[in-house]
Structures are given as structure tokens and as C-alpha cells.
Amino acid sequence: MTCRANLTTQKRLASSVLKCGQRKVWVDPNEVSEISQANSRQDIRKLVKSGLIFKKPQASHSRFRIREHAAAKRLGRHSGHGKRKGTAEARMPTSVLWMRRMRVLRNLLRKYREQGKIDRHMYQELYVKSKGNVFKNKRVLMEYIHKAKTENARIKALKDQAEAHRLRNKAARERRAQRIAAKRDALISGEQQ
After folding, report:
1. Which one, 1, 36, 93, 154, has least CB within 10 Å?
2. Model confidence at 1, in pLDDT bands (50, 70, 90)?
3. Ramachandran region of residue 78, left (φ > 0), alpha (ψ -120 to 50) or beta?
4. CA angle at residue 57 from 55 to 63, to 5 degrees?
């Protein structure tokens, strides 16, 4: 039965030389007799240089399980009633949802105004409607804009048509009045002769 040498002192000195804890010091088990002779820091440094003693590498802290868990959470797992600590308001405040929605709608309105898709009057009207919670999302606002634009175009076309009709009627009235006046003049001149 072989007696193992006590390397407590050597490990203590090595941890001081290597600037690490004693649990991080690795001692070559095949060279125990040589290492047990070392009783100074200088001897330990020589052994470190020769590779009989060295500092163990830092143990890695794997993030594999964390990444897997995060990927599952993105798919909607691990978020049932048992996993919830705060109220629904605390987890996702309604004010944050409101701010997000307002920013999306206002950005869209600003973009449309700059592109000339809507005029400033329509912009102002829709801005106020957005603030008044009329549009629940971007799609609804876009649909409303398209409907409003087609409706405005229809009204404008009807107005133009009515205006053209009015002008045509006015011109016809004027021509008729001229004809009547010409006939009257002809009658008056005929009576004078």
C-alpha cells in the first residue's frame, strides 16, 4: 500500500504564485515525490515553468439551457397562469400599448402628408380621430384613408359635373335671351319701317 504525499504546503504556495485558489491548482500525480521536495515559492515557480504544476482553466458556465428556454418562450411556451407574477397591467401596461399605437398611426399620417397622399386638412382631421381612439390599428386607418379619398373624389366629380351643367344651362339661357332680344329688335325695326 503506497502512502500519498501531503502536498498541502505546495498547493498553498502554488496558489499564491499562480494567483488563484487552491482548488484551481493542478499537481502532476506522477511527479508527487519531486513536487513534495519543493518548499519555497522559487521551487514552485520552477515546477510551474516545467509544467508539473499549472492553473486549471476556468469552468465554463453554459448558456445552452437558457438559449433553449428563451427560444421556447418566443414560441409562447412557459407563460401560463403559473408562470405569471405581476398583473396583466404590470406585465404589459396599456399606456405602452397606447403609445405604440399612436406612434404607428401618427408616423403613417406624417408619411402620407409628406408624400402628398393626403392634404393638411385631412391630416388634421385624421390626427384628431386617431387621438380619439377611432382606429385600432394601421390597417384600419389605411382603409379609412382610401375610402375617404374615393368619397372625396366622387363628391368632387359630382360638384364638377353640377358646375358644368350650371354653366351649360347659363350659356343656353344667355343664347336664348340673345335670340329673344334679336327677335324683339327685328320686330321693332319692322314696325318702324
Report:
1. 1
2. very low
3. left
4. 160
State the amino acid at position 102 in one-letter form: M
- Alpha carbon 165 to its chain centroid, in Å, reads 53
Angle at 76 between CA 75 and CA 81, to 5 degrees: 165
Question: What is the C-alpha end-to-end distance of the chain, expressed in Å?
Answer: 163
Radius of gyration of the CA atoms of the chain, in A: 46
Burial degree of 38 (CB within 10 A; 0-12, 13-18, 19+): buried
Burial 119-128 (b: 16+ CB within 10 A, else e): eeebbeebbe
Kindly report, residue by residue over 70-95, the tens digit of the pLDDT. Answer: 999 999 999 999 999 999 999 999 99
Distance of CA 124 to the CA centre of its chain: 26
Answer yes or no: are the C-beta atoms of 97 and 91 closer than 8 Å.
Answer: no
pLDDT, position 73: 96
pTM of the shown model: 0.60
Kindly report, residue by residue over 91-134, the tens digit of the pLDDT. Answer: 999 999 999 999 999 999 999 999 999 999 999 999 999 999 99
The arithmetic mean of pLDDT across residues 145-154, rounded, is: 94
Contacts of 72 (CB under 8 A, 6+ apart): 78
> With contact defined as beta carbons under 8 Å apart, do 17 and 6 qualify?
no
